[in-house]
Amino acid sequence: MLKTTSYDSLLICGGRIIDPFTGRDEIADIAVVEGLIAQAPTNDTHVIDATGWIVCPGLMDIHVHLREPGQTHKETIETGTAAAVAGGFTFVACMPNTRPPLDHPDAIRSVLERARNAGHCQVGPIAAITKGRSGNTITDFSVLLDTGAVALSDDGDGVEDDSVMRAAFESAREVSAVLIQHCEYKAISAGGVMHLGDVSCRCGFPGLNPRSEEAMIERDIGLCRDTGSRYHVAHISTARAVELVRRAKAEGSPVTAEVCTHHLVLTDEACVEGDPNTKIHPPLRPRTDVEECRRGLLDGTIDCIVTDHAPHTVDEKAAGFLRAPPGIVGLETAVGLAAQAMIESGLADWPQLVAWFTTGPAAVLNRPPRPIEVGARADLSLLSPKARWTVDPQRFVSRGRNTPFSGWELTGKAIGTVQGPQVAVSSRAGLKSSQQPAEDSR
Amino acid sequence: MTNSPGLEFVSRCSVLGIAVDMPTTETGTGKAKPAAGRDTSHRVAVLNRNDRPFHVVLAQQFDRQIIEELCRLADMIRSVSGSRQGAQFLRTMLSHRRAMLYFIQPSTRTFLSFTAACQIVGLPYNEVRDRSTSSEVKGESEDDTIRVLSQYFDLIIMRHPAEGFAEHVANMLNNMPRTIPVINGGSGKDQHPTQALLDIYTLLRSFSQPQPEAGPETPSGSQRAARAEALSYSRDVLAGKTITFVGDLRRGRTVRSLTYLLCRYPGVRLVFVAPPELQIDDDILDYISHHGIEYELSDDLRSHVGDCDAVYMTRLQDEWDVAGESKAIDYSRYSLTRDMAKDFKPNLAIMHPLPRRHELDQELDAVPQAKYWDQVRNGMWMRAALMASIFNVDAAIRDHYHAYYAF
Fold first, then answer.
1. A residues 198-237 lying closer than 8 A (beta carbon) to B
2. What is the mean pLDDT of chain B?
3. What was the ipTM of the complex prediction?
4. Confidence of residue A428 (pLDDT cuts 50, 70, 90)
5. Residue B190 has pLDDT above 80, yes or no
6. Which B residues in the span 350-389 are in contact with A, Cβ-Cβ below 8 Å?
7. H or E element: which one contains B372?
8. What whole-number distance in Å separates Cα of residue A266 and Cα of residue A372?
9. Does the CB of B45 have a partner CB in chain A at under 8 Å?
10. Are A179 and A152 spatial neighbours (Cβ–Cβ below 8 Å)?
11. Which domains does chain A have, with CATH numbers?
12. Quick one: which of B24, B40, B202, B384 has the fewest CB in 10 Å?
């Protein structure tokens, strides 16, 4: 359950302000008056005790599936954006593999309108690269962007046809659009349901050849270099793919990449018991790939962390590993999992982690910076880095329960968000707050 | 790899001029594997294609519908092969495929049952029966040996001493660009699915026939066809029947595998008669209870003989003794003797996976209830049916049967 309350005046006390847009990292109070960051609260203010918490610009997840229109039994824009807020996100970019797909300005408008009506967080629709996501004919990028699309992708499928992809790059350059590619040649991955390797040989599930990912990245990087048009690798997952992006960046090509939280914490060993909630595309990879993805984040090869939040119903996942649709939900476990992968392991600190969820994705989508400064609209996340909690899918705000992390103990979680005058917290987050005069809190 | 002497051996076609009608039996062995595997759903899923067994590794892969289809197909193959024209037709069915019999655990009867079955459906085969002649002596891993074999052949039939090895091979082959099926001809102490299939085929045939069969099969194709047509495996012939397993049940894998199949038949009643120290393992009893099948444990054969609809005898598996502990057991109490015959039901089916010792009196061979020689021959037909089914030529055989043999 998500609890949302509006306050004319708000004081967030004693939190650690981490603002990667400005490099600020200090313990301080933040006042929000009438939805804007202010120097000081008014006299009759609501106070949130943020001691021990992190207060940062609202987190962004640029790879989620909200399933609306067409698959509202899995998730809706309302439930998906509520889950985003419960996970600390104030912006999500949603993928166009809905039914029908988001390949038309009306569809983009409809998503934006539904998101506004839900009122939980900002939604940036990603429009399809090709009509019907069929991979044959490119859509009208300029109209789609004008309507409010934030990027282009056929996510769920890669654009396999070379001439179509070439046309997409050229068209995207004209309108300065970002192409986000789900890198997978079906001809190479065909039939695979998990990573092809020792573990798939052991448990018998047909292996999915990792070349299917790497080959498409390799082609696209070439096209990106030729056209100079922006290219973003969705859910990168193999060591070789990370190395390809690293080299492309070194050459100066405008390439960026994202990694999913689950690809930072789970290996293909998780699939041996045939739990359909470990069936994900791209699949869980061996340890060497997981380690390279972490390294890629640390050296800047990978720009941001995403969830690839992909809700499915319990019945759909009950079809067994071979037949269940791939994908897991991730919005509400993102912060805890990212912290386990990057902070508990000693590889990174919280300011870095926050950057992978704020400045990183903002740069990928060319979104304006949102520093925490006086006069700006409040757009904040509240994180509790020390909170230990157990993942219980039954308590997810999302309609999806499909997670392999059920029962996991995580350290670090999102408390909620502050967007304008609205404070939204997940009801189990244990918000410490009180209504008291401002001067008393000092 | 191709120039290794081991693989030249593999590639050389073996010519077996041996009569095929030899007993196909199991020296079934072994202690129970702890996980009888209630939760085998994902293990079964990767062995099947389109919900039908592709790799044949676990008895749990076979549901009632598939068992019944295979029984009918085996009957048809039996009928069709009775005539020269029919036998020639069957030999064209899989003449475009090749099988590898990888039998590195000693076995003659199962091996010959499979070769006979291959010959029936025209499937050319090669064999490896000794690892010392292969590249494994050069340090090649056994996994790689199998991968190499999978490039030459279209089916691997294997018997291996390691428990679970056939399943491992199936899983590995699922990850090869060219996936070929594997049939488990007995792996270690745990599973022997083709024996279970021939056993249930024998049981179903026996209960489906109005009169007990006397003497050898008649060679007339038309008579056999008429009889096969008359058998209806979809009828609930096992409901209300009591199947009694006798002997060394702890160490016999044939009983384990057959029990998995019998659990598909609600209403069947199972009795396990064994010396207490050789009684069937709890994991199997758990599996039986889980499927709602009624069972009884006993150590007294004589008191059960009159109630049985089928009695499945097994020999003492003393090769698994650690210190000759079974010498102390009076196994004569678990033997079926001529003087018990007066208590037999007229339709009783006496079964034995063979080889037998004294637990099955030779004098019983003459009684109409003795089904163990049929059981051996049923195994050959069932294995032929299984191969036809794996390669999807079962429909062609059914069409041929209905065109020329059915009335």
1. 200-207
2. 84
3. 0.73
4. low
5. no
6. none
7. helix B372-390
8. 34
9. yes
10. yes
11. 2-55+375-440 (2.30.40.10), 58-364 (3.20.20.140)
12. B40
Shortest Cα distance from B239 to chain A (angstroms)?
Answer: 31
With contacts defined as CB-CB under 8 Å, which chain B residues touch A204? Answer: 43, 46-47, 167, 170-172, 174-175
**CA dist A435 → A38, A47, A50, A140 (Å):** 18, 6, 14, 51
Tell the burial category of B196 from Cβ atoms under 10 Å away from its Cβ (0-12, 13-18, 19+): buried
| Identity at B201, one-letter amino acid code | Y
Is A425 strand, coil or helix?
strand
A346 in helix, strand or coil?
A: coil
Closest CA to B262 of B60, B103, B399, B16: B60
The number of beta carbons lying within 10 Å of the beta carbon of residue B220 is: 11
What residues have CB less than 8 Å from A249, skipping those under 6 apart? A255, A300, A301
Q: Which residues of A touch B46 (CB under 8 A)?
A: 203-206, 322
Rg (CA), chain B: 21
Backbone angles phi, psi at A231, to 5 degrees: -135, 135
Q: Which residue of A has its CA nearest to B170?
A: A204
| DSSP 8-state secondary structure symbol assigned to residue B168 | H
End-to-end CA distance of chain B: 54
Q: Would the CB atoms of A204 and B171 count as touching at under 8 Å?
A: yes
Of A196, A207, A320, the CB nearest to B45: A320
Entry pTM: 0.81
User: B325-375 pLDDT, tens per residue?
Assistant: 888 888 899 999 999 999 999 999 999 998 898 899 999 999 999 999 999
Best of B39, B40, B46 to substitute, by most chain A Cβ atoms within 10 angstroms, is B46
Nearest beta carbon to residue B174 from set A204, A274, A321: A204
Among residues A28, A31, A141, A87, the alpha carbon closest in space to that of A403 is found at A87
> Of B117, B182, B124, nearest to B383 (Cα)?
B117
- Say whether A275 is catalytic: no
Q: Do A203 and B46 touch (CB under 8 A)?
A: yes
The 3-state secondary structure of B1-64, one letter per residue: CCCCHHHHHHHCCCCCCCCCCCCCCCCCCCCCCCCCCCCCHHHHHHHEECCEECCECCHHHCCH
